[in-house]
Give the backbone structure.
Amino acid sequence: MEKTKRKTRIWEIDAVRGLAFILMVFDHITFDLGRLFKYIWFSGPTDHWLYKLCDLCENYRETWYSLVLRIILVSGVFLFVSGISAHFSKNNLKRGLKLLALALGLTLATFLFGEISGNRSMTVFFGILHCLAICMLLTPLFLKLNRWVLFGLGTVVLVFGFLLEYRVIVFDSPIVDFMNQYYLLVPFNIYGPRFYSGDYYPLIPYVGIYIYGILFGKKFYSAKQSLFKTDHKVLFLNWCGRNALWLYFAHQVILMVIFFLIGIIFF
């Protein structure tokens, strides 16, 4: 009996996803040190080198280039590449349901961690995994749409999301206030003043990036082949790209363990 032929992967997509993962790890390190462990380890300013490192990370998180890294080079790339990859999946609905289950598990885990640590702002109510899961569930519909309709939809979502993000548009009514009490509008970038989330990527505007990825895939990857005549694999990046999902969970756990061990050693 012949062995089942291994599924061919497009190396440049894995490489780009792998690079985004490495940048994400860096971003999460700065978040953990600057926004979490700085206040777990220290009750106030000190001359300790770890405090200075945490302070540096916290200041970095307030810069515009931190925002660019986080939104464009990490989350934006993940969503865009996932939109391209939607053309290669046999069952986007199944993938979306699995990812949604993992995302809800992440919400539960971060909620419990927040309760234990006393930092409830760590709870992830609608993060990048939640957003990506819903995008996957909507993919069968997106793939049926005309390119120009997709382009228009993606553009409208991005522009409308930008206006929501900077509060150019504000929804204020008793119905909205009631729904905000139960976080029902959180996936759509509409929330109350007390809302918090350790990671927040609402469908509006981020589904627009995913839609652009689908458009790019329709245009350049309809043959489901690499755009390059020869492979130029970067082994580590490609490995990270192939295993990005489980690495996303594993690296979070590893970072938490490392930082808690550092706390035990030094304090």
Summary: The CA atoms of residues 110 and 123 lie 5 Å apart. The longest helix spans residues 11-41. The radius of gyration is 20 Å. Residues 1-6 have pLDDT under 50 and may be disordered.
